[in-house]
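Please produce the structure of this protein holding flavin mononucleotide.
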Amino acid sequence: MKPSEGDVLLAPVPVSKEHPAPRRPAPGAPPVMNHAMSTYKVGYFVGSLSSTSINRTLSEALVNLAPKDLAFSEIPIDDLPLYSPDFDSDYPAEARALKDRIAASDAVLFVTPEYNRSIPGALKNAIDWASRPWGQNSFDHVPAGVIGASIGQIGTAVAQQSLRGVLSFCNARQMTAPEAYIHFRPDVFAGGEVTDEETAGFLRGYLEEFRDHVERVHTVIPRNQ
Ligand SMILES: Cc1cc2nc3c(=O)[nH]c(=O)nc-3n(C[C@H](O)[C@H](O)[C@H](O)COP(=O)(O)O)c2cc1C
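Below is the modeled complex.
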């Protein structure tokens, strides 16, 4: 469906000339990376606890559009108690499971809403759990991506900036471009299917760039060594 005048910020919107929509090789161009060897396990976080989360819908769309060599599984955050350093000497089972899931992942992807121009508390709580105990930061050197959907016009841009600061401190290896700020429209995301080819193409490109990013990080920093 073509955008018409009066529509605002049809998802997805490249945000700057410096970081435009994903750059893919022209048809027939030689591949940039060698994808022959690996399937990468991507643990993804949905930053919303809502039973009608549009970010969960976005995550379903991403799973459906992903290249074959990305194997996605959700890392749940809804059963975690609130983090306290008092737990550092004896993590509860839910928090140990969280850290185990990240350890078993080759990369992590954050699919998150924006709450009051920042990260939802539940997601921040999960990151705090995973980053501790001191010296056992689960995100250290882990390839990471950030994406989010909002009903608002800025498509989670401010929350993502906030999240990126947190992930920097956690020493995650973030994909910095392309960025993906999705202004959610129910007619574009029919459940896990994306009905608009332009949006589907953008998300496919985002995922291919993410796969390349994961591969680059693993080339320099092999996982679990
Ligand atoms: C506590 C709260 C704060 C919100 N703050 C923002 C905001 O800062 N920016 C924004 O674009 N939308 C904001 N929203 C609206 C969300 O974009 C909208 O509720 C969206 O559906 C949340 O994603 P989810 O459906 O995946 O939970 C807020 C919603 C809630 C409940």
